[in-house]
Amino acid sequence: MNDKALAALGEVFKSELNVSENWELYAENLFPDNEHKVITVLFTADGEKGKISVNYKGTDISPYDNSSYRKYLYRRGSPNGGDITPTTKFSGIDSAETLKSKKVDTILNNVLRRIVDLADNNSEDETAEREIFIRITDLWRNNYEKINTDIHNIYSSLSKDEKFKCGITIGLVRNGELLRNDKLNLLKKALILDGTEGMSVFTGVRSEGENRQCSVCNEIKPRLHGFAAPFKYFTVDKKGYISNYFNLKLAWKNYPVCEDCAQNLYLGSRMLKENLFFRFYRRNYMAVPRLLTGNEAMLGSLVNFLKELKSNLKEAVSEEDIVMEYIASSENYFFLDLVFIDYDAKSQTMKIKSHVEEVLPSRFRTLFKEAREAVNDHITFTNFLAFEEFLQGSKKQAEIYKFRFRFGYLLQFFDDEDYSPIQNAFYGNKFREKNLFERFMNFYRDNYSLKLQGKPYHSLRKTVIEAIGVILYLSELGLLEFNKINYEVKMENKTENLKKESSFDLERLKEFIEANPQFFDRKYKIGLFTLGILIKLVMNIQNANLGSTPFER
């Protein structure tokens, strides 16, 4: 992934955030672009430092959205150690009988304990907050069942969808005033420390360089971080991955990043995960835009275009080709890197499966508009391969099936882990005819076997039509070579005894063959195709006379 492009996205995101305090850069959204609920466990704290009394007030629930998320100071932590502040995702009390909750236990035993350790003894506000958090921890432990019962009751009242996206946090009423997390200095301090120290410290080892060149901006900077990679494609958790004689302290030499660029890389990664993360036929990918010419304002406009597209997709049945179609409508003032990934949200690890770089909108236009329209308008589908089929679940209502090409028809013949058809299509690499036909046959055989077993299967008739569509599509793109026909199709009708009402039309067969030179580029293919027609006619006669087709058995 291009770090300069990622840092540029971070600059755009930073300007959109319009922060007034540094901690706001590191506050994250629990469920980006999704409205959800947050359960607040309320405590009152009265009195001055050294004499503060803390009491449990009750539980409350409030909406949480893109405009209010910062006041809760959520930031994702580790699976075992808990998140950085008491705000965390919540999926309910583990047991209604024992009222045990791993989430609550993590807040009490890990999160709050870390936060009180951050207090500076020379700061009156921080020492007062430390006292409050210690008393909250003790009070919650002493009233564990009571407080957890209230949490359970309010969570149980939510709908199924609201339960799926719910958070929990602590609220404090201090001397009569409700203080959200953004008013508490220790929580803001925890956020900043995790956002900055994590770039230099890993497993207790600090790795920093001084007065050296940053690998992102290429400028000499006074401080360079060693662990600033926003995604874990740069790892240091195994000795063999570290240069400099496996010295973890010198990891910054592998990937030196200055403070400004480290911050921009982090914000850029958030931009990608929250706004530029899409799916393409069961494959996850991130769209990383880069300008050919222009400035940050133009990049901001481009990002807003993609974000708006992402937002509009919520109303769509499927986002598969839609993103590509929208990009195809743009001018060539930018290009996109398509980073196909496996992303584990729990461990935050990312495996790059394929990286398609520097794709211009004109290429999207060729792939998802021009070539597709050429296939849809081809005589094969407008004149020959339209047929009547019953609607799903009905034996009376029927409609005319007309083939409309989708990129997914190509991908269905390949394994989900095979990204070569995507790379070939975007880069203009040719497909091997033999390999392609093998995949057609394997797909057909697999579904034919499912049909014989009485299991759900993909329509065999449509499989053949879709394979023809793929051939025409790749031929239109110039990605499939075929022989130019140097022979004339001649068919003599010697079936004089056939009844005139026979449904077989020899002239129409000839027209079909002549309309598909890509498919019938060799004489033996015409022979195989017409043999297949003969076999199908035999099976139709068997089915009419016997009620079965023993020939295919």
Protein model, in words:
With 553 residues, this protein is of the alpha+beta class. It has helices at 3-17, 102-116, 124-142, 144-156, 160-164, 185-197, 243-246, 259-275, 296-312, 322-328, 361-376, 379-384, 407-411, 420-427, 433-452, 460-477, 506-515, 523-546, and strands at 36-46, 53-64, 88-89, 166-174, 177-179, 201-202, 205-206, 208-209, 212-213, 220-221, 224-225, 257-258, 277-279, 284-291, 334-344, 349-359, 387-390, 398-401. Strands 1, 2, 3, 4 and 5 form a five-stranded mixed β-sheet that branches. Strand 17 and strand 18 form a beta hairpin. It is elongated, with a radius of gyration of 32 Å. The mean pLDDT is 84.
Write the layout of secondary structure elements.
Blueprint: H1 3-17, E1 36-46, E2 53-64, E3 88-89, H2 102-116, H3 124-142, H4 144-156, H5 160-164, E4 166-174, E5 177-179, H6 185-197, E6 201-202, E7 205-206, E8 208-209, E9 212-213, E10 220-221, E11 224-225, H7 243-246, E12 257-258, H8 259-275, E13 277-279, E14 284-291, H9 296-312, H10 322-328, E15 334-344, E16 349-359, H11 361-376, H12 379-384, E17 387-390, E18 398-401, H13 407-411, H14 420-427, H15 433-452, H16 460-477, H17 506-515, H18 523-546
Parallel strand pairs: 1-4
Antiparallel strand pairs: 1-2, 3-4, 4-5, 6-7, 8-11, 9-10, 11-12, 13-14, 14-15, 15-16, 17-18
